[in-house]
Amino acid sequence: MAATPSSNSASSAHDSHDFPPLTRDLAFPKSDIRVHLKDHYNAKVYTSGSPVKGEVTIVTKRDVHFDSIQIVLIGNTKASFDGMSFPQEITHTFLKMVMPVPESTYPLPKVLETGGTYTIPFNFVIPSQLTINACNHKRLSDQLQDHHVLLPPSMGGGWEKDDMAPRMTRVEYSIKARVLRETVSSTGPRPENTAIKKTRIMEGTRNIQVLPSTPEEPPLNITPKDRLYTMTKSKTLRKSFILSTKLGKITAEAHQPSAAVISSDGNSLVSRPTMRVSLTFDPEIPSHIASPPQITGVSGKVTAHTFFSSGTISDFPNLGEQWNTPYVTDRRGQFFTSVSLPPISAVPEVSWTQKMRNQRRDSGYGTESSSSPVVGKDKQKSPVYLTSTVDIPISLPTDKKTFVPTFHGCIASRVYTLSLSLNMAMALEKSKKRSSVGTRVNLTVPLQVAVEQPGAAVAGGLGQELPSFEEAQADEHLRPRVIQVMSEELREEVQRGRDSWMGGGGGVSSQNTGSSSSDASSGTDGLPGYGDGVVAGQDNEQGQEQEEDRLPGYGEVGGSGRWRRVVVEAPC
After folding, report:
1. Are 44 and 209 in contact (CB under 8 A)?
2. Neighbouring C-beta atoms of residue 512, cutoff 10 Å
3. Which stretches does the entry tag as region Disordered (predicted)?
4. 110: nearest Cα among 71, 58, 72, 73
5. What DSSP line would sit under 370-404, residue for residue?
6. For residue 14, what is the enclosing H or E element?
7. How far is residue 139's CA from residue 136's CA, in Å, rounded to a whole number?
8. Which residues make Cβ contacts (< 8 Å) with residue 6, sequence separation at least 6?
9. pLDDT of 193-239, one tens digit each?
10. CA-CA distance, 66 to 49, in Å (whole number)?
């Protein structure tokens, strides 16, 4: 072994005029470990349920003593912050899938010999969600944990098109192959106080892009505290300038559109959302109804908001005012960037519907002040107003940007907002020429970006997933029940069972002082389940009696005897 380096050194000295010295590289040759993926290419995207197959190849240049070989699929979220002296980076591992390598595949002894090539196959499946232990920190709502156990998409690098993520936040998926060596170290004076430390001798990594399928979430409950969104906006129409005559007020109220569903590879839009806007026009005088405002143009943009924190996130960062709280121990950051929507050529036509305003009616007991004329603003208020609803189709520029799905993680989140600008114009007629006045109404609504479910086109086929335990319970709870009148045969069978349980009918007597038994049971025999528990009489020693007040519609039957209800206590 010692002669090999010296001869190599002499050879290097002889050829020193032509090549740089290689003494150090040959004395300590570096072994190679690589991760090869099957049917993989640079632009390939994996989604929920996608298999990740391949093999790990180890080529040794010297003898390597080892104890185990580990192949894992790891998902990490990283957030970095600029510090005073050096940057700070936080890493959160939300996924770690270990493929077991059986001991039978290891060589005996556990030595990777020089010049040997070793191949170990592996097979992973991208899960649809994480385990419940992936999110065990403090939360302000239970709904947040449902989002934190969903797989986040790859973000911050690796995409062919810009995913609008900052350099401070990354979500990475990688397959790592490690050759480990174990050493035993003492942690105390006793023999049992030992710990096994694993040292990585060799490691190979291969990153993959993951775009997990995400379900469509219900609309958000937007409140005035959610400053990220503007669901309602009102503008006043005037003739020319600010102090000129008012023509009316236009109010636009937006409804949250459905989710924009993209394909599993992120290159196309599968389902286009439609944004519905409710318009209301309050004219200043009734004559302005003849020429209500119309939409002359629509433009919009989509803004990607990325939130990241040095600690765990306990609430939805896009809702409320928790994210902007000044006194927090964690360092927080927010990054947003916008992209314009494709031109909306088909401008929706507004079809107005005239409605009457609710006015207070005179009760007939008015005073002198009630008959006096109305003064002030209500005098000029028009008794009618106009309403309309328009639907605006939305298309995302997937050819320019990569839209990763909306997600909320333990230290990072991504949400989208849709901003629309409606150009409204109202025609005016002057002496000999026709002019118009206009205004612009801006709305900002939440927009969810989802990824299509794998095998969604196969309805009821083999590709359909089995329902979860909670879904099965919900289906059983919501299963329709049929309520119908008891048949005559079933009623007789129930009556026989009741008589058998009551001891053949002898346990309870039915007597009525001053009336016949047929009259006493005439009002209750027709109802199922009634008849045996209602008896007449004042002396009954086989049951516990409770006298009730006379009910409306019930009275004395055939005499002065009073009806009572007897509660029979039977053994269970």
Report:
1. yes
2. 22
3. 355-379, 493-562
4. 58
5. GGSPP-SHHHH--SEEEEEEEEEE----TTTB--P
6. helix 3-14
7. 9
8. none
9. 777 888 898 999 999 999 999 988 989 988 888 889 999 999 888 87
10. 33
